[in-house]
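Sanity check

After download, print the first record. It should look like this:
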Amino acid sequence: ARVCHTGAILLPGTQGARARASPASDMLLGRLAAVGRRVATQPTRFAGVRNAAQVASPKPLSFRMDGLMAQCLVAAVIYFVPQDAVFLTGLFYKWHTDATSIAPKKRQSDAEAALDDFKAKKGLGDVKVEKGRSTWYVSM
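Expected structure tokens:
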């Protein structure tokens, strides 16, 4: 056996850069090469398949009504719904009063006469009238 310029031990029958340090390293390299060939030839079956549970959204897999999450949800509904109901009732009432003050409805006993009076008051000649069940809509 000889030692080359890199410090590797050259066994009889080997040359320069292809020198091997020991038979144990040959065995290790052979095992790594075999594993690499096996992995390269196997189809990739793990590409889209997982063994974990597939969850479409962040939801628990089991939901118990005596759990902390259910108790918190019930408490939140009991606390917030009355406040929201009061606020939304006031908001809808305000929207309703604003709309009725802008364009109030008035019941007419004779709709044709009321339409003719409206056209004469506004100075309109030809208008399009859509007759609904209880409301008529006038447009240009």
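If your output differs, re-run the checksum step. Summary of this record's structure: The first strand starts at residue 2 and ends at 3.
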